[in-house]
Amino acid sequence: MPWFVKLEQGLVDRAHFDQHLREHLDWVAELQRRGHQASSGYWRERKGMNGEGAGGMLLFHASDWQEAEAIVLSDPLIRSGCVSWVLHEWRVVAGAIPAAASPQAPAPW
Predict the structure, then answer these.
(1) Under DSSP, is residue 66 helix (H, G, I), strand (E, B) or coil?
(2) d(Cα 68, Cα 109) in Å, to the nearest integer?
(3) Nearest to 27 by CA among 66, 70, 84, 65
(4) What is the C-alpha to C-alpha distance for residues 13 and 75, in angstroms, rounded to an integer?
(5) Strand order across the 3-10 sheet
(6) For position 50, what pLDDT does the model report?
(7) Which of 88, 75, 103 shows the shortest CA–CA distance to 2?
(8) What is the C-alpha to C-alpha distance for residues 74 and 104, in angstroms, rounded to an integer?
(9) How confident is the model at residue 105 (pLDDT cuts 50, 70, 90)?
(10) CB 36, CB 58: distance < 8 Å
């Protein structure tokens, strides 16, 4: 199952962003429940992709690019216009990320 990475940069002020944060966190939890091994976070220095604003990343499994893009487009932060984003399929070359406790495939999105 391929890994995908969504990189994002904030587009709105903190107050507007925070209005959608709980829904985003619930969405990440749902991705985890569905087996996508999702991890989401922000850059400690709070700089986005261009060095300004806030920025963050979501790492997750999806069956293919189409499913990955559908997952990203369902993110409440994207649907509400809070962040710009770019999606990459990540090919692990060295090292490993431990598999989830459950070997089952993610539920379709």
Answers:
(1) helix
(2) 9
(3) 70
(4) 18
(5) 39-42, 55-61, 3-10, 83-90
(6) 53
(7) 88
(8) 23
(9) low
(10) no
Segment 80-98, tens digit of pLDDT: 999 999 999 999 888 877 6
What is the rounded CA–CA span in Å between residue 1 and residue 99?
11
pLDDT digits (tens, 9 = 90+) for 16-44: 989 999 999 999 999 999 999 999 998 77
Distance CA 86, CA 82 (A): 14
| Cα–Cα dist 31/54, whole Å | 23
* CA distance readout (Å), 43 to 32, 55, 71: 21, 6, 21
Structure tokens at 79: 């649907």
3-class secondary structure, 63 = coil
Angle at 15 between CA 22 and CA 49, to 5 degrees: 85
Distance between CA 109 and CA 14 in Å, rounded? Answer: 29
pTM above 0.85, yes or no: no
- The type of residue at 2 is P
What tokens appear for 105 in the block? 């495939």
